[in-house]
Amino acid sequence: MLKAFSPASHGLHINSTGLLAGLVILFWVVVAIAGPAFAPYAPGDIVDFDFYGPMSAKLWLGSDYLGRDIFSRILLGARYTVGISFAAVTIACFTGVILGMTAAALGGWFDRILSRLMDALLSIPSKLFGLVMVAAIGSSIPVLIGLLAVIYAPGSYRFARALAVNCNTMDYIAVARARGERTPYIILDEIFPNIIGPVLADFGLRFVFIVLLLSGLSFLGLGVQPPNADWGSLVKENIGGLPFAAPAVIAPCLAIASLTISVNLLIDNLPIKIRDRG
Amino acid sequence: MSKYDITNWTSADDAQVEEAIRRGASRRDVLRLFLAGGASLAAGSSVFTRATAALAASPVKGGHFKAAGWSSSTSDTLDPAKASLSTDYVRCCALYNRLTFLADGGKLQMELAEAVDSSDAKTWTVKLKSGVTFHDGKTLTADDVVYSLKRHLDKETGSKVNSVAKQMEEIKAIDLLTVQITLEAPNADLPTILAMHHFMIVQDGTIDFSKGIGTGAFKLENFEPGVRSLMNRNENYFKPGGPNVDSFEYFAISDEIARVNAVISGDIHVGASVKPQSMRLLESQTGVDLVKSTSGNYTNLNMRKDMAPGEKADFIEGVKYLLNRELIQKSVMRGLAEIANDQPISPSNAYHNKDLKPRDFDPEKAKHHFEKAGLLGQSIPVVASEAANASVEMATLLQQAGSDIGMNFDVQRVPSDGYWSNYWLKAPVHFGNINPRPTPDILFSLLYAATAPWNESRYESEKFDTMLLEARGELDFEKRKAIYDEMQVMISEEAGTAIPVYLSNVDAKQSKVKGLEPNPLGGQMGYAMAEYVWIEA
Amino acid sequence: MSGQIPLLVVSRLGVTFLTLLIVSFVVFGATLLLPGDVVEILLGQAATPEAVAGLREAMHLDSPALVRYGQWLFGLLQGDLGVSYANNMPVADMVAGRLANTLRLAAATTIIAVPIALLLGITTAMYRGSLYDRVITTIVVSIVSVPEFLIATLAVLVFAVWLRWLPALSFTTDLSSFGQLLKAFAMPVITLSFVIAAQMIRMTRAAMIDALNMSYVEMAILKGASKTRVVLRHALPNSIGPIANAIALSLSYLLGGVIIVETIFNYPGVAKLMVDSVATRDLPLIQSCAMIFCVGFLTLTTVADIIAIVSNPRLRT
């Protein structure tokens, strides 16, 4: 069946996949907010003299490489992974998309200069960026979010601009210009609705990348400080449990996957009215 | 009857002992022989172990030996004075030789030197072996030794052991094969100091070290800093038998899991320094085994006594009681550590003070001390980093223990990048990591004397400094040990350095690799394994 | 119209030069901000003030950083990348072999990943909402959600440790036959393909769906044009600009972003070189690596822009 070829069905109806994805995201948001209250142990507490221990009644998801409770560590890590990633990806995509559309609509020097600046930013290695940040500003969660946004905004800009440039050549934009519409209107009312699909898909992937990059940055000393850890770091510090299929490495992986897949599935299954131009 | 009584031990003597064992001499016979000769029990014992091990398996010649360390970078160097990463040490050990060599059990052997003697511990005569040649064919003479040692005094060399070398006031050639070293003050440890890796002997006048021309067991074939090195057997090696393997390839796999996997899959013969958590996997594999050595490496928590909060002695005392040494040993190190008593001389050293007991984990006592210092409830930043082995885990344990008694330690994990120049010695409360040094004198002079370059906690004691000088010139082992014993107590009680455990090093190897033994100077047989290992078919 | 592409290339060359200069200057500033210099890093724990001063003089690093940077820049204009502070070797020699390694791995990954990504991206867009689409989408997002180091480590465990089919390390002395080369490259290429394909598939799909929703494409469908024809003749040309951009972004990752793969498979490429150079504050080497990444990146994006213009007739005016 060629569903894509049938005329788009309108309405705010969300399908079951989207609903399920939404519920999973909601679940993790609740965990991020209320999780610490339910954690059976402190995140730094060694409760098992064994390491990479199995799931048990005492330790629901087993123990990590030091014998700490993985269940508690995931509950406490949720707020870092969910919070930081959502904040960073929203800032990055918002900035990137707005600037990308503006550059496409205005063209000329504004476009050229901004595009080259973004290219320059993209080609500076992020590790160097990270180290400089720590050295110059110090380490904190807002710095971490800012850094992630700076790393991911240029890519978002480039993609949004490419979409918007294509869109800009369409007849209805020309019609709007001929009507005498102003640039902000053209950007928001004519271009944006027409590129929102790919932009949202881009948002979903960037979210995944940020979740994963977090673990790399906390090893640079950025942001999340021990005994707390984001999920990516939990996977990284327990990677030695992989040969034994230890829950310490599998559980945080599943947490990451359930969150990131849900975000992307929700985006894919958003009601047509929101997703595509209405 | 001091430690260096057996400095004149040579391979010929080894052969004699081996011969005695072959004839049926028991361990006790050999020990009796040694005690009669005036050597220490430990020394005799280690000679026996070595000789039996050598007999148990005779080396096989040939093969390509491939091993991996854990760190490597574009700054990799073949200049022994600048060697900084373990990778550098391993390569230098294969290409060059030292005057003396420290074997298992702290036993000193002669390498390029025939003998190192002194009557007053101030003026030393180094007699060189004759007929030793460099890779380019030149014969080793006293001039090479003078050049190699004097380099360390020149600031432009950038030597890592400048502070140790400084005591050599005069270094001169007496004849073709004799060097005389005059120290600024008597130091009975000189033969041991010369066994440090940085004191490798290079050729007179060498400036470019990229060719790696030494007297060592291997000749350099190819060297790419940060990538790998390839060496071939030196057919003219001065030690009888020479190295066992035909060629030696060395590089670093910085990812520990990848290093372990490469050993198991058979891609490399030896993977250096595996984490305690990897032991379970390695032990479950056939054809792979482990070599453990405890060499006195440690990670310590430094509290500077010249600033808050370390200026209050009670804070330091409290932290020492709050470090759960047993938990660090069991959970963080998985047993690959020995509990330490807040001083730097490990049990592998003959001068270790056994009577100095480690503090028990006692949160109540700790709380009492923090209260006395007026610091209970305050937030104390503790700087840790991956750069100092296991420090992040130790900091986490301290934080957890602190939160149970109302003490708030704020763990700050900082990048490994630049840790030693930015945080170490600088932050008020921070972790350090000290590599093994062969003698108490070196450790004390580097770390605890008032003028020590790495006085981690700014410890100052006139009495300590006087005792340090006194012990240095003392030739009698027992008298010397008595002084060192007291100095260890002083450090444990007064200095701001909490040393919870001495870390062990574990190297993973394929079982068919033989001859890799523990060594007091570190893992990979004190980094000198290439010359000694062989690969069974 | 036909003169537009050469004009673009020429103007881009000029802009590229300017961008390189900006990047170089930013990187220089960033390096200055980092604590410690090459001498302190090399001496490590032995960095006493006298030792630092002595070695700095011996290494001729006592002139101000800005002066040294100026000298390096001047040398670069004459095609000289300078000499590494850390080991006194010409930077060009150090970079050459490792750049070749990186390009080899990148090329192999591109050949595998890009066609697969395009195929999957276009077909999932054509059959949007079908079971095929949902299965592929879920698999793709699942794969990209797994940390790169986990994929690489798992691959080593399965293929090198348990099955013993492939070597655990990719850079070995015995690469004599094509078969061995294939074996050595298999795992890094698979890992990298997993990492970059997801983005390309998702972006291709999204851009295609958008194009398929355009009114003139719907017109073509109503007119009864064949499915393949609609996709290839009407929708694809319109979405190729964004697709090319997404591919360019993904491929640029293969230059500087493959540090994890280089580390786990012990493959000496430029990403590890850059990390090393930052760690030792080796200014000429940092600068040279940054220039390489920048040139590579700008080349990719310029090609993407050209493809976009060529494919969309409306952009050619």
Sequence-ordered SSE layout with sheet pairings:
The complex is a heterotrimer of chains A (278), B (537) and C (317).
Chain A: H1 16-38, H2 70-106, H3 108-122, H4 126-136, H5 141-168, H6 171-179, H7 183-218, H8 231-237, H9 247-268, H10 272-275
Helix pairs in contact in A: 1-2, 1-9, 2-3, 2-5, 2-7, 2-9, 3-5, 5-7, 6-7, 7-8, 7-9, 8-9
Chain B: H1 11-22, H2 27-36, H3 41-56, E1 64-69, H4 86-95, E2 100-103, E3 107-110, E4 113-118, E5 123-128, H5 142-150, H6 162-165, E6 168-175, E7 178-183, H7 190-193, E8 218-224, E9 228-233, E10 247-252, H8 256-264, E11 270-271, H9 279-283, E12 288-303, H10 313-322, H11 325-332, E13 337-339, H12 363-373, E14 379-385, H13 391-404, E15 408-414, H14 419-422, E16 429-434, H15 440-447, H16 462-473, H17 477-494, E17 497-498, E18 501-510, E19 513-514, H18 523-526, H19 529-532, E20 534-535
Parallel strand pairs in B: 1-10, 1-11, 14-15
Antiparallel strand pairs in B: 2-3, 4-5, 5-7, 6-7, 8-9, 9-10, 11-18, 12-16, 12-17, 12-18, 13-18, 19-20
Helix pairs in contact in B: 1-3, 2-3, 10-12, 16-17
Chain C: H1 4-33, H2 38-43, H3 49-58, H4 65-77, H5 91-126, H6 131-145, H7 148-162, H8 178-212, H9 215-222, H10 227-256, H11 259-264, H12 270-280, H13 283-311
Helix pairs in contact in C: 1-13, 5-6, 5-8, 5-10, 6-8, 7-8, 8-10, 9-10, 10-13, 12-13
Overview of the molecule:
The complex is a heterotrimer of chains A (278), B (537) and C (317). Chain A has helices spanning 16-38, 70-106, 108-122, 126-136, 141-168, 171-179, 183-218, 231-237, 247-268, 272-275. With 278 residues, chain A is mostly helical. Chain A has a single domain, classed as MetI-like (MetI-like fold, Orthogonal Bundle). In chain A, helix 1 packs across helix 9, helix 2 runs parallel beside helix 5 (141-168) and helix 7 (183-218) packs antiparallel against helix 9. The longest helix of chain A is centred in the first third of the chain and has 37 residues, at 70-106. In chain B, a hairpin with a 3-residue loop joins strand 8 and strand 9. Chain B is an alpha+beta fold and 537 residues long. In chain B, helix 2 (27-36) packs across helix 3 (41-56), helix 10 runs antiparallel to helix 12 and helix 16 (462-473) runs antiparallel to helix 17. In chain B, strands 1, 8, 9, 10, 11, 12, 13, 16, 17 and 18 form a 10-stranded mixed β-sheet that branches. In chain C, helix 5 packs across helix 8, helix 6 (131-145) crosses helix 8 (178-212) and helix 8 packs across helix 10. Chain C has a single domain (91-312), classed as Orthogonal Bundle (MetI-like fold), CATH 1.10.3720.10. Chain C is mostly helical. Chains in contact: A-B, A-C, B-C. At the A-C interface, helix 3, helix 4, helix 5, helix 7 and helix 8 of A face helix 1, helix 6, helix 7, helix 8 and helix 10 of C.
